[in-house]
Amino acid sequence: MDERNGLAVPRTLDEMCDPGRLALLVYDMQTGVLGQIGDRDRVVGRVAEVLDAARAAGVRTVFLRHVTLPTALMGAGQLRMWRSWQRAGSAAEVVSAFPPDAQQTRIVPELRPTEHEAVLDKVTMSAFEGTWLDIVLRDCGITAVALVGVATEIGIEPTARHAADLGYVPVVVTDACGAGDAEAAERALAGLRFAGDSLLTTAGEFRAALARHRPRAQE
């Protein structure tokens, strides 16, 4: 651990994966979202591996869901975005794609949250914008957030960047993230590497780092 001015500055994945100061964010692993991902089963399986390791190590976990408002409550920005994504001819043709209680909005059954985990609904790409996430993580003393889920180019990147701006260390588990557009996802990861404030790792490396902490987590 690096240190300056009385501050501990993590350098390695092991230092960032202290279960007492790490949170796992499972991004938009919803039935309707994963239906748009070409390698759905691979992504679900890899996220499940990371989730199992986080649970074994006692890492605090929050599942994120993208929800949509009734169209009568959508603002111009929301209508514009959904008009583009739905390839609608006009804002009047936009429909609410992910109502909170709809089947397509649910977390896939393979990753069912436990009673010790929370589900956060959002209407933004960054999980921190307009939600309770930052308040809760700070109150728990969290300093690093691990990100898995979909989609890399849509939600993982802006959440990682926002986390860094808020002072967290983002840990992006790249092979436990899926993409709707592979080229866009590679550009997103390249941008995160270039910025330098996120740590990019693999599910295997992440699980190994958590395992090395497990005895202390179980004391």
Describe the structure.
A six-stranded parallel beta sheet has the order 5-4-3-6-7-8. A two-stranded antiparallel sheet has the order 1-2. The mean pLDDT is 94. It is of the alpha/beta class. The chain is globular, with a radius of gyration of 17 Å. Helix 3 (40-57) runs parallel beside helix 8. The longest helix has 18 residues, at 40-57. It is 39% helix and 20% strand. The chain is built from eight helices and eight strands.
Keywords:
20% strand; single chain; 6-stranded parallel sheet; 8 strands; two-stranded antiparallel sheet; 8 helices; alpha/beta; 219 residues; globular
Number of helices: 8
- As a whole number of angstroms, the C-alpha radius of gyration is 17 Å
Strand content: 15-25%
State the distance separating the first and last CA atoms.
22 Å
Major sheet: order of its strands? 5-4-3-6-7-8
Residues in helices, as a percent range: 25-40%
Instruction: Indicate the low-confidence ranges by residue numbers.
Output: none
C-alpha geometry: globular
